[in-house]
Amino acid sequence: MTSPNNFPLLDAAGTRRRFVAGLALSGLGLPLARAADPLVIAQVAPFSGPQAVTGRAVHAGAKLHFEAVNARGGIKGRPIKFVTRDDAQKADQTIKLVREVIAQEAPIALLGTVGTTNLEALAKYGVLVQQRVAMMGAVSGASSIARAQGMHVVKASYHDEVARLFRNLSTMGVQRVGLVNQDDGLGQDVLVGAEAAARQFGIQLVANATYARNTTAVGPAVAQMVKAQPQAVFLGATTAAGIEFVKQYRAAGGAGAMLYGMSIIDTDALRKALGDDGARGYAFSVVLPLPSDQGRAVVRDYQALRNAAKDPDLSARSIEGFVAARALTQVIEGLGNPTAASVATALNAAKAVDVGGYTLDFSLGDQTASRYVDFAMFGAGGRIVQ
C-alpha cells in the first residue's frame, strides 16, 4: 500500500518504521524527532600573542574533560559544544568577544578567560551580570576577581601564594627578597599581597621591578635585581616573561639568588625553554594537584585521558582547565533543564564540589574556591621535587 505521495505506509504490524525517516530524508520538511540540543560552553581567551600558551593549555584541559563527557553520552543525553574566541589577551577584545559569543552561541556558561586586566574589564562593564552568564575557572588569582560577581576561580589566590612563600622563606632565614611583577592589575595585586606578607613575616622587599604587560621586556628588571642582590627573587610574572627573566638573570650573573615563580608560569614551557639543566633549582607555587599526586582521582583521570589524547597544547597549566570543566559539568548535572541563569544560580550556591580528591567551594563570594598552596622545585633531570 502507498500514500498519495507514493511513500510506503506502515503495515498493521508496524514493521516498516522507516516511514518518518524516509519523509525527513526526502526533504519534504516533515521533521524527525530532533537530536538533543547541545549544551554550549564558551571560552574567550588568548590563542595568539604572548599569553597564547596559557589560553591554549587551559582550553586543552577543558576540552579533554568535555570530550570524555560526550563520549559517554553527554549530560542527560545532551552533548557539550565547546566554542572559542581569540582575544589575544586584549581587554577591549575580551569584552567585545564575550558579548559576541553570548549573542551568537547562547552559552549556558563561560570558562577560562585569561588575565586579571581582562577579567576586571568584564566586571567593570557588568558583562556577565547583564547577560546572567557565569564564568567557571576564570584564570586569575587576583582579589578583585575573587570578589567579582559571576566569576569563579578554581585555585588559591595570589595573596595565598605569596603569603605561603614568605612564611616558608622566613623559616629558612631568608629576609631579603626581590619582586618582579607585571605592570597591570595582576602585578599590582601581587605587590599588595607581597607587601602585606613581608610585614607579617619580617621579610624586606629590597627591590620591586616591573615589566610592561603582554611583553617579555624584562631587561631593566633583570638589571635591577642583579644590582639589589636579593637572597630570593619572586616572579609575579606570566609565562613568556618569566622564562625570559630566568634566562637573562642567570646570564647576567644572578645565579646566587633563589628563583620562585608563581603558579601562573607554565612549568612545562619553562623546562622546555631552559632545558633540564637550566630549569634545575627553579621553584614554583603549586595551587592545583600535580601529575605526580596519584592519590587524587582527578589526577589519575586527567593523566589517563591526557596520555590517550596526545594533544600538543596540553601542559602543566591544562589541569586548571580540566578541573574547571569537571566542576562545571558536575554542577550542570544537578539541574533539570540547564540554562545560563540556572547554572549561574547553582554555581553561586555550590559549597562542596569534589572533582576527585580536590574540593571547591564557590559559595564564599569574596575569595577563590580553593586555598590549597604548596611548593615544588625542578631537580636533576627535570624531575619535580615537592
From TrEMBL:
Keyword Ribosomal protein: no
Any one Gene Ontology BP term: amino acid transport
Domain Leucine-binding protein residues, every copy: 40-379
PROSITE patterns tied to this protein: TAT (PS51318)
Pfam families tied to this protein: Peripla_BP_6
Similarity section: Belongs to the leucine-binding protein family.
Entry protein name: ABC transporter substrate-binding protein
Species, as recorded: Xenophilus arseniciresistens
Organism phylogeny: Bacteria, Pseudomonadati, Pseudomonadota, Betaproteobacteria, Burkholderiales
